[in-house]
Input
Amino acid sequence: MSKRRPVNVEVTLEEVGGNASRLIRRFMKKVKKERIIEDYLDKRFYEKPSVKRRKENLKKLRNAQKAERERNTRLNIK
Output
């Protein structure tokens, strides 16, 4: 498994026109997009590979079910 490169998330006041609240919102958006917090939370504890695979398969199943529900609502299928 390869190591991920370090990510530097940066937002300047010039980007947001001097608005501090917009600066914080934009920073949080970038952090969420780079999955920095999620990666940290995932790596806090060791997780066996079998558990990782099981979680991944359940996530795929949930996403497929959600996509099917959305497709059915668009097509008015009950």
User: Anything to note?
Assistant: Residues 19 and 30 are 17 Å apart (CA to CA). Residues 46-78 form one domain. The mean pLDDT is 90.
